[in-house]
Write a structure and sequence with these properties.
The structure holds two protein chains of two kinds. By secondary structure, chain A is mainly alpha-helical. Helix content of chain A is about 65%, strand content about 5%. In chain B, strand 4 and strand 5 form a beta hairpin. The chains are: A mainly alpha, B alpha+beta.
């Protein structure tokens, strides 16, 4: 390829660049190496954590009941650790470096420190994993005190968090350099703005993590005698739940990025989209409340205000993205000439391109399954029916697996040609991957939510209570749900396994990408039918978007109906006050 | 596009499209409604979690539960005492690795003040198949007012992970006419 590797001296620091054949951007080779390292580490932990997830699903399938109880709780702890924390954060660091150094045409700040960050994260992840696999730390990912894990479990998490925090500062430093060296004009791009949102939330969550994990580590070492159980949960979830808002911001940034790359989509309104991101920064931090709605010792006033993210202002942010993203896509496709009927723009989208398919499935499933269930679950009184049932993992598998993980997979199909400079190997197989994984993830979410509605407990090895003195039978439908959940788990594992194999094989053996094949390497794109439209910026006024209005109306109707159905169920419960 | 700087440098002065404004308004009002719903249910609804909580040493709570059980035991079931308190009584149930103790027998339509606490780790009071779930902490005595509206045999499953015996931790509440 045309590697115009030149040595630029900017700000007294030598950085080596190549020119991207697709965009003409200067790509800092140090940033490129770091993006590769973080993305590869992420995918390795996805593979490990995903395998643990399959074992969990197969154990909860009563007819299979694969693991012993000790192994089940061990594997469940490792599953949460590896996918909810390690895979996601490693990948987010890659996204942060991409959204700063690459999109802003800039060198990465302090690459050596970025390698230290990578080393710390890796060391922390390995230490925590080894401690869990040794069998003494089956305390679940949440490690609620007074359940106690060996000190190395907490130390591993602390090291990982410190590394991630350094990565955040590298991102912020890169923004400062780009501004200083004028590598872009005007404001930062929307995708970088989304990444900045993710980074700010990340700093908050990592600080919360440090505030709770460091004392807990000292407690585990014996230097502190007591950790308050309610306070632990409050601060731990300021890390645990708010870190999911890092995902939220990062995945929304990806939802904007992929249609921009493949379809040339522009945000309907920069102002609205950025304001929606701002709402995440301002209000998502209140999410600890979602885990404390049936907790003693916290007032209802506190619960109601915090669980609603200050009268649902952060939910408002997501609902805004929920319209502006399909709206941007519809506007772009109509500009590309797909103007027939209400849905030609959607029908003729590049469904054979795994980046597109993954992105759009992630958007729809996050909204319909994850978003709606999240608001319902987080309603103070309704939570009485759902707290700690399988509904909870059902909800967050819709957000983190069907939403975030699928979005991250989708962008990887573009990162491989753009950053690894390799073609995707086996494009036919890749075409099916997001559908397989998406279907599996949707099944996992729905069937766990179904089982949870029937009262089935989460983190529970044996719903037949065969070893218990007093017995209890869940309704037969619960067994059906868990069976279907197991099958969906297998489907998702096949889809996830395919992803890992395709990406690893592409990076190792894929055809080199250069100026001649970069466009093709990004996968199928819709052919423009005509290049008529004289579009001004902010195309909402230029185009009528009937398809988007219909999609948003369907979403809103589903939301309202499901919300009231749950209030009706609640009203039939025993009276309590 | 979303990957490049905004085309208009003064992007914050652009007019917002009508469709977006309409949607933002609907979404905002829906949020206000959902918020009000929780507040309204506290005033008018019959299913709210009590805010009555006291700090208590686990040993002290154990003593109170034992005194309660001694006073009201009517029979044994699976080697465990069954306590049948009079309607309106203060009722105690403690959780420890790995049992809910004692078994309770309540009357349908009567209101009881149920005291919950843990002797050791956190546990999850999950009343099945009714599906009422309450977190139980050591050191905190949570007083929940409960009125059974059905008769039958109900189970209390632990739904907070509490170690290797977690899945054997089941308690019992009978509700009779």
């Amino acid at each position: 390829m045309s590697v115009t590797t030149d040595t630029n001296i900017i700000g007294g620091v030598a950085a080596k660049f190549r020119t991207c054949p697709a965009t003409g951007l200067d790509i800092d080779l140090a940033a490129q190496r770091l993006i590769k390292a973080n993305a590869v580490a992420a995918i390795v932990f996805l593979a490990i954590g995903g395998l643990f997830g399959l074992l969990v699903a197969l154990t909860r399938w009563p007819a299979v009941h694969l693991l012993s109880s000790d192994m089940f709780y061990l594997v469940l702890t490792a599953h949460g650790l590896d996918v909810l924390l390690v895979w996601i954060i490693f990948f987010e660091i890659a996204v942060l470096y991409f959204a700063s150094a690459i999109l802003l045409n800039c060198r990465l700040a302090a690459p050596r420190i970025a390698w230290v960050a990578f080393g710390l994260m890796m060391a922390g992840a390995l230490l925590a994993n080894v401690t869990v696999l040794q069998g003494e730390a089956s305390v679940m990912f949440t490690s609620y005190v007074p359940l106690k894990a060996p000190p190395n479990f907490y130390l591993g998490l602390i090291l990982f968090a410190v590394g991630a925090l350094l990565g955040c500062f590298i991102f912020l430093g890169t923004l400062v350099i780009a501004k200083e060296e004028k590598t872009y004009e005007g404001s930062i791009p929307l995708v970088t703005f989304g990444a900045l949102t993710a980074c700010i939330i990340a700093v908050f969550t990592i600080a919360s993590g440090a505030i709770i994990l460091i004392p807990t580590w000292l407690w585990s070492l014996g230097y502190i005698s007591h950790i308050d159980t309610v306070m632990y949960k409050l601060v731990w979830w300021a890390m645990g739940h708010s870190s999911q808002q890092i995902n939220m911001a990062a995945q929304v940034a990806i939802w904007y990025a992929i249609p921009a790359i493949l379809l040339g989509a522009k945000p309907l309104s920069e102002k609205v989209s950025r304001a929606a991101f701002l709402m995440y920064i301002l209000f998502l931090q209140l999410a600890s409340a979602h885990h404390m709605l049936v907790e003693p010792g916290i007032s209802s006033e506190w619960k109601v205000f915090n669980t609603s993210y200050a009268i649902y202002l952060a939910v408002l942010g997501s609902m805004i993205h929920g319209m502006s993203i399909p709206g941007a896509i519809e506007a772009a496709q109509r500009r590309n000439g797909f103007t027939n009927g209400v849905f030609e723009w959607l029908r003729r989208a590049p469904w054979a391109n795994p980046a597109w398919a993954g992105m759009f499935l992630s958007l729809v499933m996050f909204g319909f399954l994850g978003g709606i269930s999240g608001v319902v679950l987080g309603t103070e009184q309704i939570n009485i029916m759902l707290h700690n049932t399988l509904y909870v993992p059902g909800h967050f598998h819709a957000t983190v697996v069907a939403g975030t993980t699928l979005a991250f997979m989708a962008i990887t199909y573009l990162l491989v040609p753009l950053i690894f400079q390799r073609e995707i190997i086996w494009p036919r197989l890749a075409k099916w991957q997001p559908y397989l994984f998406g279907l599996g993830a949707a099944g996992i979410s729905l069937f766990m939510m179904g089982a949870g509605t029937l009262g089935v407990s989460r983190r529970h090895w044996d719903i037949t209570f065969s070893d218990a003195t007093l017995s209890f039978d869940y309704p037969p439908a619960a067994f059906l749900m868990l069976g279907l959940n197991g099958m969906s788990g297998i489907l998702a594992a096949i889809g996830g396994g395919l992803f890992v194999v395709i990406i690893v094989a592409s990076v190792l053996f894929g055809k080199k990408v250069d100026a001649s094949n970069i466009v093709a390497a990004l996968g199928p794109k819709p052919q423009k039918q005509m290049s008529d439209a004289v579009t001004s910026y902010g195309s909402a006024g230029t185009f009528h978007l009937p398809g988007t209005y219909i999609l948003v109306s369907i979403f809103f109707t589903a939301f309202v109906l499901y919300y009231f159905v749950n209030w009706k169920y609640l009203s039939e419960l025993w009276q309590m006050g | 596009m979303a990957l490049t700087s905004p085309e208009s440098k003064i992007w914050w002065n652009e007019r917002i499209g009508r469709a977006e404004l309409v949607w933002i308004t609907i979404a905002f009002l829906w949020g206000v409604f959902m918020f009000s719903m929780m507040v309204w249910w506290h005033l008018e609804g019959n299913q709210n979690l009590s805010n009555e909580v006291y700090r208590i040493a686990p040993t002290k709570f154990e003593e109170k539960t034992e005194a309660f059980t001694e006073k009201y035991t009517v029979r044994e079931e699976a080697g465990m005492p069954v306590a049948k308190p009079e309607p309106g009584a203060e009722v105690y149930m403690l959780s420890r690795l790995w049992e809910w103790w004692p078994i309770l027998e309540l009357k349908k339509g009567q209101t009881y003040r149920l005291h919950l606490s843990s002797m050791d780790w956190q546990h999850g009071f999950s009343l099945q198949p009714v599906n009422i779930n309450i977190q139980v902490h050591p050191g905190l005595e949570h007083v929940v007012t409960l009125t059974p509206t059905q008769t039958g045999e109900f189970s209390v499953v632990c739904n907070e992970f509490c170690g290797v015996g977690h899945h054997t931790m089941v308690g019992r509440i009978h509700v009779v006419e």
